[in-house]
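Our preliminary data section would be incomplete without showing what the modeling component actually yields. Below, a chain of 318 amino acids is followed by its predicted structure, encoded as tokens that our downstream tools consume directly.
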Amino acid sequence: MGEFELIRRYFCPLAEAGSSSAVLLGPGDDCAIQRVEPGRDLVFSVDTLVEGVHFPRHYDPEKLGWRSLAVAASDLAAMGADPVCFTLALTLPAADPHWLHGYARGLANAARSFGLSLAGGDTTRGPLTLSLQVHGTVPRGLAICRSGARVGDYVCVSGTLGDAGAALNYLDSETPGPDEQSVLDRFHHPTPRLSLGVGLRGHASAAVDISDGLVADLTHILEASGVAARIETAHLPLSAALKRIAGANAVSLALNAGDDYELCITISPEAWVGLPEDIRRQLTIIGEVTFGEGLVIERDGHSQAVVAGGYDHFRTES
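Predicted structure:
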């Protein structure tokens, strides 16, 4: 199978997945064309996933299809963007029809779920690597950035934290129990909080998606905003499954493990009161923004200043 037959058979059908009228020209030409309506800003982000780094070797291709687009779409959620389309640069060791069929099926399911249509991309031969760029739009001036946190704001997170990190211990399990399967589902099928992000436009002062761990990603907000924060571990939302399988390590996973793709936001107390109830129900207040620099974690009556952890591709051990 040649490159162009591969594209035609497996990926051109994804151009219809999101059915966005904003994509005037999709795959098949030198460039795609996206129309941005008057009064809206274009937001876009690109993520690269490498086999053996971001996902296990010989990982199920259908799961990878979903996961690769979810990871990229989560950045749109953090900005409060309405999803429009995506592009895919795919590097493959070989044109394996079985792998391609599974990956395209998972990608199509994710695209339909997230409202994203494939606008174009590229394929080449080499070590398995996926680069996906996602496009969305927001009303002009309403994108939620990392730099807007203010002293006195609440620090909030969506969903539960730590599940995907716990799943790493069970990726090779052939007969996972119910709790292990629960955390595995969070790793295999993350759900970008797109509707939540849209609902937070005009309310949240800052936001980031939790990809590298709560401590690391919240620190991005604090550094961009020039503020500090304190959070209380007793308020961290932990799933029942995580608490049962991780025990005392559950809090550490919630603080430092990545791949949850939940949202961490800051919001003023006044804006919190004004949030629609269905938005408030998706969030948990875990702390507040304070004067100064850095992050303080309060646990069992003790306070500890922490240094951002999380995954860093180029950090070396000393």
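The chain has two domains: 3-139, 146-306. The longest helix spans residues 61-79. Preliminary results of this kind motivate Aim 1 of the renewal.
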